[in-house]
C-alpha cells in the first residue's frame, strides 16, 4: 500500500494492454481501486483476473472512447460501483505512421477521434464530478511527439499529441485549484501502439521500437504523479529510452 494512492478510485482508458494494463496492475498493488476500460473486454478481464489474484481490486468496462455517451455512461457506472472517482487516466491512443502525401484521411480521422476527442470526452465525463467534490486528478497520455514533431510520417499523430499537451496545460490553468492535471509524455515504449502502423512505414516503426522501454517504466511515472500530496501537482513528465535521440 502507498500513501497517496491507497483507496483512490482510478479509471484507465486503453487499459487492456501496454501502459494502461501495467498502470492498472501497479496502482492496484499500491492500494488503488482500479477501473479499466477498452474495446476488448476479454483482454480487460485477463488484467482484472491478474490483479485479483494478487489481492487487488479491479473491474472492467467495455468502452469505445470515440463514443461520447458511452464514456459518460462508463464514468457514471464506475461512480455507482465504487462510490466515487478520484483519478482519470486518458490512455487510449492510436499511432498509424504514414507520409502526409499518401493522404490517408481515414487514419487522420481515427487519430483525431481516439487521441484527441477520446481525451476530451474523458475530461467532459469526469470533470464536473471532480469540481463538485473539490478534488480529482486528470492524467493525459501525450508523447515526446507532442513536444517535437515526429516527421516524416508522424505529422498528424504529433498534431493530436501537441493538442493533448496544450489541453492539459490549459485545463490546469482553468481548474488547477481543485483538480490536478498531468501530461505524461513517453518516447518509445513497448506496447501494441507500434502495431497500429501498416503499409510502407511499418518496418521503420518496428525498427525504431527496438529501443523501447517497458510499459512498466511509464506506469511508475504515473504512480509518482498520483501519490503526491494534494498540494503538489506534477504537471508534466517526459520519459524516454536513454538511447532515444528524438
Automatic annotation (TrEMBL):
Family matches, as InterPro entries: KR_dom, NAD(P)-bd_dom_sf, Sc_DH/Rdtase_CS, SDR_fam
GO molecular function, one term: oxidoreductase activity, acting on the CH-OH group of donors, NAD or NADP as acceptor
PROSITE patterns linked to this entry: ADH_SHORT
Domain of life assignment: Bacteria
Keywords annotated in UniProt: Oxidoreductase
Domain Ketoreductase: residue ranges: 8-192
Pfam families assigned: adh_short
Protein name: SDR family NAD(P)-dependent oxidoreductase
Lineage: Bacteria, Pseudomonadati, Pseudomonadota, Alphaproteobacteria, Sphingomonadales
Amino acid at each position: 500500500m502507498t500513501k497517496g494512492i491507497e483507496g483512490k478510485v482510478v479509471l484507465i482508458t486503453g487499459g487492456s494492454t501496454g501502459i494502461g494494463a501495467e498502470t492498472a496492475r501497479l496502482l492496484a498493488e499500491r492500494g488503488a481501486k482500479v477501473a479499466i476500460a477498452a474495446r476488448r473486454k476479454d483482454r480487460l478481464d485477463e488484467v482484472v483476473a491478474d490483479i485479483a489474484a494478487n489481492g487487488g481490486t479491479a473491474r472492467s468496462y467495455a468502452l469505445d472512447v470515440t463514443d461520447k455517451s458511452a464514456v459518460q455512461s462508463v464514468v457514471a457506472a464506475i461512480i455507482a460501483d465504487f462510490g466515487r472517482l478520484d483519478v482519470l487516466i486518458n490512455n487510449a491512443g492510436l499511432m498509424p505512421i504514414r507520409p502526409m502525401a499518401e493522404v490517408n484521411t481515414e487514419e487522420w480521422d481515427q487519430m483525431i477521434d481516439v487521441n484527441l476527442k477520446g481525451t476530451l470526452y474523458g475530461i467532459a465525463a469526469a470533470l464536473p464530478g471532480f469540481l463538485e467534490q473539490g478534488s480529482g486528478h486528470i492524467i493525459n497520455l501525450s508523447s515526446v511527439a507532442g513536444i517535437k514533431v515526429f516527421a516524416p510520417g508522424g505529422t498528424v499523430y504529433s498534431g493530436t499529441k501537441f493538442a493533448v499537451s496544450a489541453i492539459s496545460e490549459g485545463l490546469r490553468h482553468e481548474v488547477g485549484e481543485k483538480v490536478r492535471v498531468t501530461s505524461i509524455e513517453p518516447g518509445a515504449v513497448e506496447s501494441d501502439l507500434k502495431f497500429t502502423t501498416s503499409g510502407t512505414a511499418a518496418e521503420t516503426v518496428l525498427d525504431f521500437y527496438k529501443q523501447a522501454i517497458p510499459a512498466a517504466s511509464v506506469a511508475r511515472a504515473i504512480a509518482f504523479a498520483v501519490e503526491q500530496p494534494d498540494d503538489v501537482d506534477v504537471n508534466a513528465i517526459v520519459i524516454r529510452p536513454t538511447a532515444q535521440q528524438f
